[in-house]
């Protein structure tokens, strides 16, 4: 089902009215790594919207390396996202970690993110195949393109064809950046599959100062959109502050990205 041979035209996934994929335009998603409360997420949602972002990200269930690190606000964080959507009209994307949360996500979230660490959580993928909400499937930390596409196949074989791929950097020997952005996946995915692909330059680099250049390169390479971490006080962010853009910088990236999308 992921294979372009059997589906020559580009798939366009509709996320609460926002279309991802196809030739027309690029979709830029912005928001904090973690939801930190209703005021914070509603404030950043408005800033993302004012900057030209069309969808809001925010983690409520966080897959942290250390069990002692902030684990996310859970259901409260999801409800804060729902409130931010109510106030701004932006559709919301958030990460699911387990099968037990599917009902909560189907009810509340517009685009359900499967994080890098769960790319091969096959029970979760099978369960997401049984619903019809769009899924944002991130590439695993050390997974090949074939493995990534087979994970998309798990979701699609259940009947849910609303899958968007997201490259977020892979593990290499290089330690200067948090991960290594594998940009060649964009034309490779376009060759092998009809699914939309977006780039996450924030987790790919771990460094806000690299986010603009990698975003523009991703658009030039043919990506269908970007998902970027945005925080209005990155120094105090509860997670991933070092890779988060301030709203003014995010606005610049959105504008330059759109300009590049027009000429390619
Ligand atoms: C995230 O989007 O905040 C996240 C944890 O991403 P990844 O799964 O790519 O590490
Ligand atoms: Mn993050």
Automatic annotation (TrEMBL):
It comes from the Bacteria. Residues 13-255 form the DAHP synthetase I/KDSA domain. Keywords: Transferase. One of its GO terms (biological process) is aromatic amino acid family biosynthetic process. The keyword Transferase applies. Its EC number is 2.5.1.54. One of its GO terms (molecular function) is aldehyde-lyase activity. The keyword Transferase applies. This is 3-deoxy-7-phosphoheptulonate synthase. The chain holds residues 71 to 334 of 338 of the full protein.
């Amino acid at each position: 089902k992921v294979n372009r041979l059997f589906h020559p035209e580009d798939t366009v996934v509709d996320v609460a009215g926002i279309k991802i994929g196809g030739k027309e335009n690029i979709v830029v998603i912005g928001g904090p790594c973690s939801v930190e409360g209703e005021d914070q997420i509603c404030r950043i949602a408005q800033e993302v919207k004012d900057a030209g972002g069309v969808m809001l990200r925010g983690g409520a269930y966080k897959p942290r390396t250390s069990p002692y690190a902030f684990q996310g606000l859970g259901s409260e964080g999801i409800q804060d996202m729902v409130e931010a959507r109510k106030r701004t009209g932006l559709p919301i994307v958030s990460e699911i970690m387990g099968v037990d949360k599917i009902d909560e996500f189907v009810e509340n979230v517009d685009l359900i993110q499967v994080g890098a660490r769960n790319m091969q959580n096959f029970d979760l993928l099978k369960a997401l195949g049984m619903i019809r909400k769009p899924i944002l499937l991130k590439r695993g930390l050390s997974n090949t393109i074939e493995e990534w596409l087979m994970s998309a196949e798990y979701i699609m074989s259940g009947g849910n064809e609303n899958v968007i791929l997201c490259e977020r950097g892979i593990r290499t020997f290089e330690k200067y950046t948090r991960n290594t952005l594998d940009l060649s996946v964009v034309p490779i995915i376009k060759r092998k599959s009809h699914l939309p692909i977006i780039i996450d330059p924030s987790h790919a680099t771990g460094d806000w100062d690299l986010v603009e250049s990698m975003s523009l390169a991703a658009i030039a390479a043919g990506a269908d959109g970007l998902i970027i971490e945005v925080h209005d006080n990155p120094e105090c962010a509860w997670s991933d502050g070092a890779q988060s853009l301030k709203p003014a910088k995010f606005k610049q990236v959105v504008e330059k990205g759109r300009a590049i999308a027009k000429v390619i």
